[in-house]
């Protein structure tokens, strides 16, 4: 236990909670029990404010990103055992009712200043903050003049104390629509007929896709495929719709590369080429270059080598090709089927994505002498494969089944976590 300010505060809070519990016993009067309920709710709201401010500060520092998480909500879910929607609720509050830091380092007021005041005073809860943020992010609210928008926010904050979140949602929506009397400006222009997709590569890897499809049938064909694969993996999936769609497109393209009937590109079926310098190859492939100019980080390269069709192209000091290997698959099909039969999909707790959309991860990395065998392989989806390679999560096999060990900052005891498995049927 921390012996500093946080530790002392925790001990005082625990003592106060124990005293409150001792007062709210079956022998207490009705008035005492009702008072205990009211006090507990007030304390919960004050603690929520502490949590929200801590989340905001951690986001400003980039603490979770440094530990391999792209999503603050995902990190909070693993750290505190929250459902993803509970984590997102705190993140939303942190983004709207905590002070901000400008580019020059100056402290700026919260986006929802009036809501921040009533939340800090304990007059409203997290769900009310979430509702106010949602109402004021609507298209109708975006069309309001700044002064009118601020007035609507103050009115919503004032009503939050007397309305339930559902009532506040309905009242606030009606208020914003009434203030937005004219609605969206009419657009009488004929849309330009466009069917195009632009791919822009970034110098250091990755890129941008911008497309527009005037042909409704063409768009529906694309949308149907992406929509099918962009559904949340579980009820706890913290990715935004845009993130899920981006992952879905990459997954679909990867699946087609592996299983689809594609025309040959340059006389061969399209796959990834990994260009490796001889000195890097001699140092266990710490650096490489992809066909389209991207330079994968060492962790990303190791992730790629876990389960992919790779053609190594070894380059000399003047970048001349010294050797071009054959396309080989790191994980043989028979082994992949065995791993899939054991896990039935992603084996990370709470995921369960099907095997056809998963990759096989070496528990002990191949470059460190790990075998490409069932006792050293785990099936994970791309998102959790990335987490294993870019964070301090560890996976191990115990009695032939995978266990995932969280980082110390999530669980100081590092208690292993495993996906529940159905009982065997005799």
TrEMBL record:
Query: Where does the HNH nuclease domain lie?
Result: 334-386
Q: Which domain of life is it from?
A: Bacteria
Q: What InterPro entries does the record point to?
A: DUF222, HNH, HNH_nuc
Q: Which residues form a coiled coil?
A: none
Please report a single Pfam family linked to this protein.
HNH
- Family, as annotated: Belongs to the Rv1128c/1148c/1588c/1702c/1945/3466 family.
Give the protein's recorded name: DUF222 domain-containing protein
